[in-house]
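Narrative summary of target 7.
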Amino acid sequence: MTRLGQIGMALLGTTILAGVPQMALAAERPAQKPAAASAAKPAAAAKPAAAAKPAATPVITPQPVATATVAAEPILSLTVEGAQRLEPDTVLSYIQMRAGQPYSEAAADQALKDLYATELFADVSVRNDGGRVVITVKENPVINRIVLEGNKHLKEDKINPEIKLAPRQIFTRSKVRADVSRIIELYKRQGRFAATVEPKMVRLDQNRVDIVFEINEGPKSKVRQINVIGNEHFSLKEIEAAMITKTARPLHIFRSNTSYDPDKLAYDQQKLRQFYLTQGYADFRVVSAVAELTPDKRDFIITYVVEEGQRYKFGDVKVESQLRDFDGAQLAKQLPMKKGQWYNAKLVEDTIDKMNETVGVFGYAFADTRPDYQRDPKNLEMGVTFNLQEAPRVYVERIDVNGNTLTQDKVVRREFRLAEGDAFNSVQVKRSTNRIKSLGYFQEKFEVKQVNGSARDRIILEANVEEKPTGELQLSAGYSSLESFIFQASIRQNNFRGRGQTIGLSGSVSRYSKSLVLSFTEPYLMDKNVSMGIDIYRRDYNNYNYYSTSSNSLYKNSTTGFQARLGFAVTEFMSLVGRYTLNYDNVSLAQSQFYTQNAAGVLACNPLLAGRYLCDAEGKRLSSIVGASLIYDNLDNRVRPTRGRSGSLGVDFAGLGGDVRYARVRANASQFYPLGKGFIFSMKGEAGAIKALSKRNLDGVDDVFLTDRFYLGEPQMRGFDIRGIGPRVVRKPYVTDSTGALTLSTDKNAWTQDAVGGKYYYLFHAEVEIPLGSGAKEMGIRPSVFLDVGAVWGITKPNLTDSCTVQGNVNCAIFVPSRDSSGNKLYLQTNPDGTTATLTGSKDVVPAATISGATVTALGSNISPFKEFYYGDSPRPRVALGVGFNWNSPFGPFRIDIAKSLLHEVGDDTKTFQFNVGTQF
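Modeled conformation, tokenized:
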């Protein structure tokens, strides 16, 4: 080996290790078995003092060495020693030395440089033995694995795609340096400017190594303060609201973007300019933006220097059109900006988009509206002329659907409002986009892309979809002071077999009800624009003695049935749905609790025990119902609408066979308004009425059966319990007070009450969805404020049973639910001598009677005295105000509602808290 080559080797060997001062020598970190990440750590790794930044590799300048002049001898042979993975010929291909050439120290030094430049070798030497040149190499090791340690806030799946090193690659120190810098840069993006990375190498057998990046993440650097210098017309609070970066405050737990990011600093400068341009400051500019690290190196202070300039108003606003279908003067009259208004650059941009969209309806897909500004610094006016450039009429050449792996193409294509060969229409493209979004099968960030076709008048529409899970597993729970916990569960696949079909199974269990529903929907029957659906269900409703600690069931209503539907499109936004429903209802009461033998010795419902309205409702009946609904819907998204309206009008007729005859009508409507800055205001209303078509001819009994009436409460109206609004019968017992007198009990645990429904109802919701910032939006947090108004009323007042009309504290009379031959109501009187007498007439004039032991014997049953009250039969509105909290949590959708009843009637059941949670798969 030449002396110059030896010097170069010594220098190169030193500087390679110096290039990464954090990299431990292989001998300093003994090899461990790669069974766990911790095994890659050395027992005692030598850590250089300068760990924050790798030292630069010094440039090696070989110094001339005084040698004696000798005659150059030819190279007889070239031999490679030490190569393991590389072939000798491959090693020789990297150098310029060849057999037959004269050997020289310069050629040997160049060979060394060429081999080190490949970064394949850890050590190289050249030795000349009488013309026989031997090149000895030591190959760089192969990476066995990459280990990250100490990374808690930035996981492996975020770091590994960003680094160059990977298992089975050749180890090079330059890649290590680059990866250290990249990891530190990733942490800076998260606002962790104090993060450090120390790379270490663990040598293994077979010339393999483990690379360990020991990461010290450090604290997150927040933006402690934002200063603006030069703002004269707007406060710092107004300016900061327009920027993405926010100052960190202890109470702003939902604030995001409080970390310093150089890219966001540049973006905020654009946001500042946009803010001032919307306020008329056309000359505004940001002079400088400086971010300073605080002395404790934990936070940043950002300072903007701005020049606001003069404020402009709109001058003359014109439209010049080169399109034959549009008159510039007529378009100018429709512009939103007028002369004398404050100049607003955002309004100009929105007007350009609106004009392009308008001409797109007429087939001008690539129409170009260009604004021409006329600035008048003297009068501080900004004139704008919109130049509508000529563009050819465009036709749809092809529609492409990309990215769908499960969903069939036809499911997406049938939502397009344009077909191949149609004239391009931007409104129809937007409508197609909204319809595809409303399917709920794809990610929300979806747009139909427009691509130039094979000719100037051709356009290709691309639907680049990204599928998301369409299965839903919904679990919800609520708590009621009356019913304890309520559990509901459902499993549904909204894109069954990729055909757009929906199949689902749902059930619920609570103290008051159980239900099971199996449903199936085909939106395009036989690939036609006809929808079909069927539901099969079983619902059991138990009306409990809510306030009683005994939890006795008053009555049970079981409904078993099915419903079949067919839907037809009338217009783009309107459809007609026909349906047929068959229900088998069984209203029953516990015989041991509410039945006694009547005078004929037959076991029958005892009104004194159950109530007249329940005795009249019990029985089995079959309902055969046909109906139809006219539905209108132009919402931009059925899953999460932000604008548009929907409504329906439905009519049902029961009497096509069966035991029940009635006509029922229902209507509902909703409207959504985007208020700007993420606020969404919505209004929803519904109402209904039902009329019996056959008479029951019973006094105090409504012709509409108990099971067919309307009920209102949770979940339709927050702030009230299930069936907590409307007509109800409350039975309050008499108790003996400390003086021995009979008085009505005030203990709700001793009361029983039944919601008996109504024939008319209305319900109205108003809700404002409140944005919390981009960070909360990314987390799926959507709070809202709502107002609910509603009522249900309008049935025949039931005959109430009053077992005691108290007169002088000790007198009692009992109403017996029967009549004499003249049709008069019959009453049972207890005489002082213990005998009974049957009377007719009004309860209010029943002669005095004596109670023995605070009980009365009637029709063979001993009952405690009580009095029934009829509450809630009023159309007066019930009003509830509350807040809702929606969160797309990691374990599924989560919803909390807290509502306060502002207006309610006597007997209404109020409720404050409700929540539910679900998940997707």
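The first strand starts at residue 77 and ends at 81.
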